[in-house]
Amino acid sequence: MSTFIEQWQDWHADRERELADPHGWLALVSLDWLSEIPTTYSAAPGVWWQDAEAAYVDPQGAELSYEGEPITGVQRFELVNSGAGTRVSAGDVEVEVARRSGYLIRVHSPKAPALRDFRGVPAYEPDPGWVITGTFERFPEPRPTTVGAVTPGLHHVYQAPGLVRFEHDGVEHELTAFNGKSGSGLNILFTDATSGVTTYPANRSLLTAEPAADGTVTLDFNRAINLPCAFTDFATCPLPPEGNDLPFEVTAGERIPHERTDS
Fold it and tell me: Where does the source fall among the domains of life (predicted)?
């Protein structure tokens, strides 16, 4: 039991250090959607715009760099929709470029108020009873799955490789799983009966290791985490897919952040 708690505490400390990164999610100070008209934005140096395929920036005298090299003319960014973004450096800030149907830019500043005031992430006490063994059932082919977003009118499309089935209090439940962010394992977006009460209402995320050859997969709900939208209004996080609303209380994992309860 002591080892279990110590391992969770180490994981939780690493999680809080990640959130406190000077250019991480708590460092966001703006979000702007690009248009086809070249535009200047108060938080992001340069002139920005998009077309149907890509986003563009013209530094117009601003000192910008991309992948370690100065940007001296118009720079083009063609990204995967709902995929990873990329970063442009401008002094001590980083401008994130991402594609979410259209293109957006977000400025990460180490002087962001949310970063300055960060007090850690509230969480339930670790409980080995919330470490549950499930079974992963792979689809014959990954299924493109459209989900909503915390941003009204926005949708994300992800590839779902299969379902995870597990039992809780003698009742079987199933959750649609997406591919893990690191290229292995699974990422399960879900809500439950604590959502909007003690946990963030829109979503939480549970990452797992790669399922075993027989489909066995461990669901450690103690490590259910908040998505960036729980901490900042400058995120466009996905909502869980249909059916991923658990009808019982998952009293494990991260709770509503201080930033939300304070406001």
Answer: Bacteria
Q: Among 160, 139, 176, 164, which residue's Cα sits nearest to residue 215?
A: 164
Three-state DSSP class for residue 217: strand
Distances (CA, A) of 18 to 68, 120, 138, 261: 23, 11, 31, 21
Query: With contact defined as beta carbons under 8 Å apart, do 200 and 260 qualify?
Result: yes
Sheet holding 39-40, edge to edge: 39-40, 47-50, 55-58, 75-77
The residue that leads in pLDDT, 153 or 226, is 226
pLDDT digit string, tens, across residues 127-183: 999 999 999 999 999 999 999 999 888 888 899 999 999 999 999 999 999 998 777
Q: How far apart are CA 127 and CA 5, in angstroms?
A: 8
Q: How far apart are CA 167 and CA 153, in angstroms?
A: 35
Pairwise CA distance, residues 168 & 171, whole Å: 5
- pLDDT, one tens digit per residue, over 73-132 is 999 999 998 888 999 999 999 999 999 989 999 999 999 998 998 999 999 999 999 999
Domain boundaries, the chain: 2-20+119-262, 25-116
The torsion defined by the Cα of 31, 200, 151 and 90, in degrees rounded to 10, comes to: 20
Query: Measured in Å, how far apart are the chain's first and last C-alpha atoms?
Result: 36
Phi/psi-derived region of residue 26, left when phi > 0, alpha when psi is between -120 and 50, beta in every other case: alpha
Contact 174, 243 (CB under 8 A): yes
